[in-house]
Write a structure and sequence with these properties.
The structure is a single chain. The protein is α+β, with helices and mostly antiparallel strands and about 180 residues long. It has 2 domains: about 25-50 and about 90-175, no CATH class; about 55-85, no CATH class. Helix content is about 15%, strand content about 25%. Strands 1-4 form a two-stranded antiparallel sheet. Strands 2-3 form a two-stranded antiparallel sheet. Strands 5-6 form a two-stranded antiparallel ribbon. A hairpin with a 2-residue loop joins β5 and β6 (about 145). It is extended. The structure holds zinc ion (ZN) (2 copies). One zinc ion binds near residues 50 and 52.
């Protein structure tokens, strides 16, 4: 029996992708720590004890205490305050194409301490620029992993150096349908 794969957490969607910006980017987690970055130490993130890949925020939640008096009136007699901690992974996207930085962006990001979302238990994200949706297993291709066929086809067009029609949307749709996105 194959070993059960660990369940990965899906990071909440924050996508703002445009079909006219078809750039392949790899989604990574980027370290940051106010304290440990004060002193320039090489590979500080390896020694940081403050969860550098997670952004913690404190949100104050106030709840009113309401009492009902004998005559039926409702009166606010006070408030309770709770501090709720939220933790969000620090995501970043790095171009993966020979046109940008000779295709070395991802390598350089790892050298800056970036790590894959999977290594922290988060689901991998679509490699389309500004799309942060989780990867759909059906669209793992030779030119990257995507949330669906639209983003896979747009990047395939870019990799194959197909200039997509901008004004004639029917022609553009035909062009996109004709692109081979058979799985890797
Ligand atoms: Zn630290
Ligand atoms: Zn996508």
């Amino acid at each position: 029996m194959p070993a059960a794969r660990p369940k990965l957490t899906v990071i909440p969607d924050q996508s703002r992708a445009s079909q006219y910006r078809n750039l392949r980017t790899v989604k990574l987690l980027q370290p940051a720590c106010e304290e440990c970055q004060k002193v320039p130490v090489s590979k500080w993130w390896e020694h940081c004890p403050h969860e550098p890949y997670v952004e913690s925020q404190e949100v104050e939640v106030q709840t009113r205490v309401v009492e009902t008096r004998e005559d039926g009136r409702k009166v606010v007699t006070g408030t309770t305050v709770e501090i709720v901690l939220t933790e969000t992974p620090r995501t970043t996207q790095v171009p993966l194409t020979l046109r940008v930085n000779s295709g070395r962006g991802v390598e350089q990001a790892f050298a800056r301490g970036c790590i894959t979302p999977e290594s922290m238990g988060y689901a991998p994200m679509c490699q389309y620029y500004n799309c942060w949706k989780p990867v759909n297993a059906k669209f793992r291709t030779t030119f990257g992993d995507y949330c669906g066929d639209e983003h896979a086809r747009l990047i395939a067009a870019d990799e194959d150096q197909i200039t997509l029609e901008v004004f004639d949307t029917n022609k553009r749709k035909r062009q996109l349908r004709g692109i081979d996105i058979s799985a890797a």
